[in-house]
């Protein structure tokens, strides 16, 4: 973990607003000690021209409003592969650039969603990819500087584990859009050797599926957005027997295509690396506790909704003995609620002391 500020005042607890933030590549989620739970698509847009400005009546649009008007705006997704595109400390960083502005707009919007009241002290825990660099985490702290009083940046899958109270002998696999993060819990704050961040996650599936659809359906233009929407509705790995047929517009008329194999291939494309790293984290664990670790394998993130995934992971790991693989009940808020819980549990002294984790 890394902190943005270490001077914590001893305010009465009613005057502290605790916020858990999952700053995601595709979607961010926020949960607060006042019971708010909200999400926003992690995208910022600027009207392209006068007409777009007249239409939107705003200089900047954020989240779903931006996606809904995507033809009228220049869009920036402030995160790439799970980390912020703009790092103030990077050589040549331009604080006036669109990337810098996008980061600022998105983080301000997320804090607004938390509805802080005047005079409240804000303490935020924010998720970052498991193996993000110190610079990546610093960029997150910098992005909320001035918006919150104190910020701690922690590994996303660790926050999911914390929220589920899986403190010991558990393996979390968080399948996001930009990154797939693995984290093994062993009764203490996980170290680097307990965590992995892989680049093949949801966006990788989308690109692969998009490419396969374009190869298959030559008589209709297919966008990446369309591929993602189909994936989010039907995503599956091996065990499903159903046939997935989608209507595409060809010369103004719907034409049905069987996309089952393309979707299966795209969804399964993230499996080999994911299994390889899960396996490594299991076999390098203290052998006395490996059995228990294998009983607590938890899938999180939007990608945990791929049908058949838990069973596929289980069957690929049973060579070492029995395994139990489950998916979190709430993939949207598991990270943010874990972050909120950590923020609330952290004693004042820890808010002061917390440094690298
Ligand atoms: N039903 C579904 N089946 C499969 N994938 C899905 C489903 N719903 C959402 N996804 C995918 O989950 C991903 C988003 O998950 P999540 O919100 O956990 O990611 P993120 O936090 O934005 O990204 P990251 O953690 O990489 O920064 C996207 O790739 C999205 O397409
Ligand atoms: Mg995420």
Beta content comes to 15-25%
Largest sheet composition: 6 strands, mixed
Low-confidence stretches: 2-7, 9-13
Estimated radius of gyration: 21 Å
Summed up, the helix count is: 13
CATH topology title of one domain: Nucleotidyltransferase, domain 5
How far apart the termini lie comes to 4 Å
Helix content: 25-40%
Architecture overview:
The chain has 357 residues and is an alpha+beta fold. Among the domains are: 2-164 and 333-349, ATPase, nucleotide binding domain (Nucleotidyltransferase, domain 5, 2-Layer Sandwich); 202-268, 2-Layer Sandwich (Nucleotidyltransferase, domain 5), CATH 3.30.420. Helices cover 35% and strands 24% of the residues. It has helices at 50-56, 64-68, 98-113, 134-143, 156-163, 202-216, 224-234, 260-268, 271-283, 290-294, 309-317, 334-345, 348-353, and strands at 2-3, 16-22, 27-32, 37-41, 44-47, 61-62, 73-76, 79-80, 83-84, 121-128, 150-155, 168-175, 180-186, 195-198, 245-250, 253-258, 297-300, 325-327. The protein has a 6-stranded mixed β-sheet. Strands 14-13-12-17-18 form a 5-stranded mixed β-sheet, with helices on both faces. Strands 6-5-7 form a 3-stranded antiparallel β-sheet. A hairpin with an 8-residue loop joins β13 and β14 (195-198). α5 packs across α12, α6 (202-216) packs across α7 and α6 packs antiparallel against α8 (260-268). It is flat, with a radius of gyration of 21 Å. The N and C termini lie close together (4 Å). Bound molecules: adenosine-5'-triphosphate and magnesium ion. Residues 22, 24, 156, 176, 301, 335 line the site of magnesium ion.
């Amino acid at each position: 973990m890394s902190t943005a500020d270490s001077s914590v005042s001893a305010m009465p607890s009613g005057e502290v607003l605790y916020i858990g933030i999952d700053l995601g590549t595709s979607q961010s989620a926020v949960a607060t000690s006042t019971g708010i739970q909200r999400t926003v698509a992690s995208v910022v847009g600027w009207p392209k021209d006068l007409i777009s400005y007249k239409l939107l009546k705003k200089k900047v649009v954020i989240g779903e409003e931006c996606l809904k008007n995507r033809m009228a705006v220049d869009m920036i997704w402030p995160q790439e592969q799970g980390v912020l595109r703009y790092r103030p400390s990077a050589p040549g960083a331009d604080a006036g650039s669109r990337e810098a502005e996008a980061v600022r707009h998105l983080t301000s919007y997320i804090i607004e969603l938390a509805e802080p009241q005047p005079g409240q002290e804000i303490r935020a825990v924010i998720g970052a990819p498991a193996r993000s660099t110190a610079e990546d985490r610093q960029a997150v702290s910098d992005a909320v500087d001035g918006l919150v009083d104190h910020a701690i940046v922690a590994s996303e899958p660790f926050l999911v584990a914390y929220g589920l109270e899986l403190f010991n002998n558990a393996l979390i696999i968080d399948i996001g859009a930009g990154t797939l993060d693995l984290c093994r819990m062993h009764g203490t704050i996980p170290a680097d050797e307990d965590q992995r961040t892989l680049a093949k996650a949801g966006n990788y599936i989308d690109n692969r599926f998009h490419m396969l659809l374009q190869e298959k359906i030559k008589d209709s233009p297919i966008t990446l957005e369309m591929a993602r929407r189909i994936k989010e509705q039907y995503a599956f790995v091996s065990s499903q027997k159903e046939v997935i047929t989608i209507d595409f517009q060809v010369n103004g008329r719907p034409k049905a295509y069987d996309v089952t194999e393309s979707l299966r291939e795209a969804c399964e494309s993230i499996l080999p690396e994911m299994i390889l790293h899960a396996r490594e984290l299991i076999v390098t664990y203290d052998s006395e506790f490996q059995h228990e670790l294998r009983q607590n394998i938890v899938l999180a993130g939007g990608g945990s909704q791929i049908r058949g995934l838990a069973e596929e992971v289980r069957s690929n790991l049973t060579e070492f003995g029995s395994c139990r693989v489950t998916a979190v009940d709430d993939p949207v808020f598991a990270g943010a609620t874990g972050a909120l819980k950590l923020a609330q549990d952290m004693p004042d002294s820890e808010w002061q002391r917390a440094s690298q984790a």
